[in-house]
Amino acid sequence: MDVIALDDPTDAQIREWHGVLSAVHGGDPAGEPAPEPEQTAGRLLGGDPGSRQRLWGVPDGGRLAAVAALRLPGAPGTDRPAEIDIQVRPGHRRRGLGRRLLAAAAGGLRADGRTSVIAQVNAGTPAVPFLESHGFECVLTLRGMLLRLDEIPPDRIARLVAEGPEGYRLIRWQGVVPDEHATALAHAKHAMADLAEYEGAPWDAHRVRETAEVVAKRGDDLYTVAALDSSGTVVAGFTEIVVPHDAAGRAAQYDTAVAPEHRGRRLGIWVKAAMLQWLAGERPEVREIETDNLGDNEHMLAVNEELGFRVERESLEYQAPVSALP
Ligand SMILES: CC(C)(COP(=O)(O)OP(=O)(O)OC[C@H]1O[C@@H](n2cnc3c(N)ncnc32)[C@H](O)[C@@H]1OP(=O)(O)O)[C@@H](O)C(=O)NCCC(=O)NCCS
């Protein structure tokens, strides 16, 4: 079974790719929700602006047995890590297909002048021994949490919103940040310093707008709630939720941050509670919100637990220098 490049996949190849993802999901239903066929097609054909992708597959008797996608953010040769995702049908495992796809991706990484690659996988799955036997090391633990909105006691959100700290006021917008708050929001995004290492470019008004435009181009809706300090010009904290157009029952938590000098005043839980109140009126079809938290981010975990989020799974981010790959 040979690896073939699938960089311009045909409709039939996209359907086959989706078949692999469905079979992998069927073998581990506790993992991520299975994607819809349109989501698979959207990812294979579109990808994210600002990032290129390379695709490979392993055909077996007219079907795909395994697939690999490599996301290459930024220009060739940048030191931002690329991202690899390999999926092998459960019936085709332990025959070296994963290793062969990784070797093909390593060729793509070298051709693009990359020095490192990351992979995000669920704890306790075969991906862990697979990656660890190929030069990857765990660099980050993320807790996947889920909030079921109809399980929240009815008065909790209203109470948390009413208990907001003195000297701050809430603002909110859908889509791209209003011009007058763009720079202030970029400053607040710096507060997510723990992730900066993986994000590459520094935050400025341009990048903030561009990120929101990427979400809109996918057809998804971005909602932001922010707390301004008494000057009205500083974003002290903010939270973002994305409602995907193709799975509207489950929304995704994007960034939440409180600037260091404004921490310890319950701003994080305030903006998040205000977001839930807004969504309940604006998007009543949203029943669940998912979020990933750094395993060592105790404050954010505590905020999420107080709101009613429960840990669903633990995911791990692995990283390898390209020089260690097969
Ligand atoms: C992780 C995954 C891609 C591995 O694919 P695979 O084709 O079975 O892997 P390979 O046969 O190439 O395995 C190569 C080596 O990895 C290690 N390995 C792979 N699966 C393993 C397992 N279940 N237990 C222990 N070691 C394992 C072994 O060292 C293996 O060599 P060996 O078979 O000679 O002992 C596959 O299990 C999968 O699709 N999982 C679900 C999706 C996923 O989590 N993808 C990871 C994202 S990168």
UniProtKB/TrEMBL annotation:
SUPFAM superfamilies: Acyl-CoA N-acyltransferases (Nat) (SSF55729). Keywords: Acyltransferase, Transferase. The keyword Acyltransferase applies. Coiled coil: none annotated. Residues 4-155, 183-326 form the N-acetyltransferase domain. Residues 24-50 are annotated as: Disordered. The lineage of its organism: Bacteria, Bacillati, Actinomycetota, Actinomycetes, Streptosporangiales. Residues 26-42 have a biased composition (Low complexity). It comes from the Bacteria. This is GNAT family N-acetyltransferase.
